[in-house]
Amino acid sequence: MLLEFQVTFNLHRDVLPWVSTQGSPVSDTLEKSSRTLRIINLERNGNILYTWKGVEGFTSIGLYDPLAKQNEMLYSFDSDVNIISASVNNEKTLVALSYCHPTYDTPSRLLSPASRYLCLLIEIKPINNVKVLKAVDGSIRVQFLCPARHALLPYESHLLVVSEEKYIDQFHISVGEEDGTRVVIKNISQIPKDRIAEDFVWAQWDVSDQMLFYIVPKRAGCVLHCIQFYPDGNFKFVLEIPLEISFVDQAVSLVNFGYDPPDERGRTRVASQNLHMFTNKTGGLCLFYYQPPKVLQEFTYVVAFIHKGCSKTFKVRTTMTDPKLLKKVSFINIDSYVAVYLPDQFLHLVNVRHPELMCYNLFLAAEDARISGMCCDCPLQTVLKTHVIECCTGILFSVSIHQAQLLKLLTESRQDCKRLAVLHCFLLHLDLQPHQETQLIEWICDNLSTCPMFDPIQEFIIASLHRHLSLETVYLDKLLPYTSVPFWSQDIDGVSCTTDITDMPILKIGTFKGFWEKFHSELEYMKQAQQRFLYSNHIQRRDWCRLISEVDTIEKRNDVYQRSILENAKKVLQNLDTRRYADERTVPLNQEEEYLQKDLMGLMMVKLKDHLSQHLQHVAKNKIDKIVLEFVCKQLDLVCQILEVVWRKHVLDPSVLCLDGSGNSSEYFAFHVMCRITDAASRMCMPLPPGFQTLNLVLAVRCLPLGNLLQYIDAGVLTLTETFVVKLLKELDNETNEKLKCSIILRLPENICEKVHNLWDHAVSNNVIAMKYVKKLLFRLYQREVTRQSPTDRSPLYINFLPLNYLIMILSDVEDRALNPFEEDNIDATFLEEIALKRTADLLRLQQC
Predict the structure, then answer these.
(1) How many CA atoms lie within 13 A of 763 on its CB side?
(2) Whether 728 contacts 734, CB under 8 Å
(3) How many other C-beta atoms are found inside a 10 Å radius of the C-beta of residue 657?
(4) What gap in Å lies between CA 523 and CA 306, rounded to an integer?
């Protein structure tokens, strides 16, 4: 079962034992109380209101406090009434309720002009005091707002009254002191009220954020409105957006305004449609709805991503034969996802934070989609974020994604779309425990070659970075990539999807707080269509290739831009030193400087600073510097984390650092993982941790034949480092490993070759020494030519023929130095001559005798 349902409240477990102590212990009374016990409301603070009836003819309202785990009687009627809705204020001094008139069903009542429904305001502390607010023929719902908590009296409670006659009023109930006791409003004869909305066909109350959504039909579609209520009783019209939804039935549908009793259930809800509005903590606002399908085997539902300016229509193939099954569809809010569940058919986790591609959604069918332990007679209703209620059983559940089942789904799945959706869920939306993160990395390393549509290592690094840094500051999550797969064209079996552009919402407020601040940032980002920061973009890759082509020279180091790169790289290396000493790591990564990787670290920091400074102008420079440094260091830490998992799982010991020996299967696996990391890093233009390339080379020598090793080097999979070459020349025997050493020396870049040529007494090394000296000599001759005296100072032997003069100068210099040849470097003329002859013979492919 992918979704984990944990019971947080159960009427029969948490309330019925207490109810049995409130009345007569007669078995008939207990049986009726058990049968009539039901939930009628859930308040923002978690308090649950319920009602039950007794044989004696009374109807009671009780409250369960989940924090104290205690029940409390709020009010009791001495007659059998059908309570529709109830709510209690935060101080538990006022109760508002609506109910059917107790004598309505009697024959004589049919001729009476009295209204069917009554709405009452009852003071329960310190004395009972009843005020009739409404007497109408349509059903009424009541809901107290979360009140302001004032230390001094007087104070107000604010009550919403929702009528099926298509209007919503807000009552302002003032409470003051009289004779030392607290009583209901001073002007009880006329309670002030505001008309909030009217002529609507659908309304939903968001108890968590104190928001009211409602839809008003128009000629060509309808308009969605939203009102935000504040603790002081004020409210603002926040949002307005046209929707292309047609209502077949004009009856009013209410969501989260209490829970219908059995004889009312289905009467007030629009049978042809099911609409639910969901929000999440990152500013997402989505409308889910479905209409009865024309073909029973094709279930269609629409998701309007208001914060993204688009809507998606999903069509799912089903095996339904009974149309009654459509009434059991459930929309379950899990914050980053909304689950669309149709019993015995499918479970679709719709990604509301990143809805762009289908591969970010998780679609399950058959046995994978089954939810056990649920009653199939009524749908689940989301009441609070990640909480649903099963009205027919009176059970409240907290809902979460079962991480063990999700990992099992990952290991058993053979489809790339499902694997990517699971990884996306793990890395971006779930708080992983260390052992679960280890299991996830183990799966990634074991399946590097089984995911043709995406790279699991890239997904792990990019998504983990986004999750780690996205909460650092506003908009940062819009500037950093969250996935390695920006495009996806494959279909998902069993479901099809079409995307449409929707109208932009109209915001009617100037200042934004709480949820609306994040929602506004989503809209602003969507309007500006900012480009995300991608490391594989052509600008950074071009700069990286330029850095590789340059030689590490003094002129390069004096360049201002290059110095900036080096200074930033130094900060990364210092930070890595601190982290290395703080963590206990088993991977033998030496803290060495590889100049190309160091340049890439600095380049990445410079580019990222420029990008963030451009789009985060409200953020201080030192804050951006800190974010950038943490980004690069965290990137390197993630690579080390992968290696740590591999090292510990395969129990690799320090012997892997010895070049003289053959590798086993565990070492070959580690080498394979490191090569895949190198490939991923190359395509992402990201640096590798210090010592990574040297360790990879050592494993390559132990695990690969010489021919394959040289192919890996020539192809760029392995990069030669100074540390590795020094280790190779010092540790391996000259005679046995001469071919290996020759092949490596011939492939060394010039800057490394100059530092290690004197470590090996061999013809190849001597060739390098000779070429180095000749280059040095010619460079000196060139400098002397530049600084030669002017023509007026030259001797009378000077011939006015420039080519001949130049030849004479070169020969004179060589002749002078031949008197004391190569004294500085202890290189004699015979040695240089032999090297030159051998080099010439090799170039001309001549066999030497």
Answers:
(1) 11
(2) no
(3) 16
(4) 9
Q: Report the chain's terminal Cα–Cα distance, integer Å.
A: 80
Taking only the tens place, the pLDDT of each residue in 666-676 is 999 999 999 99
DSSP result, 152-215: SS-EEEEEEEEETTTEEEEEEEEEEEETTEEES-TTTTS--EEEEEES-SEEEEETTTTEEEEE
Backbone angles phi, psi at 72, to 5 degrees: -145, 135
Domain spans of the chain, in order of start: 538-760, 771-844
Helix (H), strand (E) at residue 328: none
Which pLDDT score, from 0 to 100, does residue 545 have? Answer: 67
Instruction: List the structure tokens of 609.
Output: 């600073």
Asked if 5 and 374 count as a contact pair (C-beta separation under 8 A), the reply is: yes
CA distance 205 to 290: 19
What digits encode the pLDDT tens for the residues 521-578?
A: 888 877 765 445 444 454 566 666 666 565 455 455 556 777 788 888 888 888 877 6
Answer for the pair 61, 97: CB distance below 8 angstroms, yes or no: yes
pLDDT in the model for residue 654: 77
Q: Which H, E and C letters describe 484-533, residue by residue?
A: CCCCCCCCECCEEEEEEECCCCEECCCCCCCHHHHHHHHHHHHHHCCCCC
Whether the predicted pLDDT of 75 surpasses 80: yes
Crossing angle between the packed helical segments 595-615 and 560-582, to the nearest 10 degrees: 100
* 600 pLDDT higher than 50: yes
Q: What is the rounded distance in angstroms from the CA atom of residue 637 to the CA atom of residue 125?
A: 60
The residue type found at 313 is T
Where helices occur in 747-823 by DSSP H, the ranges are 750-756, 763-786, 802-818
Which DSSP category does 133 fall into?
E
Task: Evaluate whether 331 touches 311 at the Cβ level (below 8 Å).
Answer: no
Residue 355's contacts (CB-CB under 8 Å, 6 or more residues apart) are 303, 305, 308, 310, 312, 361
Give yes or no for a cis peptide into 505 (omega within 30° of 0).
no
**Per-residue pLDDT tens over the stretch 418-464:** 999 999 999 999 888 889 999 999 999 999 989 999 999 999 999 99
Mean pLDDT, the chain, as a whole number? 81
595: helix, strand or coil? helix
Cα 105 to the center of its chain, rounded Å: 55
Neighbours of 784 (CB within 10 A): 12
Q: What is the pTM of this model?
A: 0.83
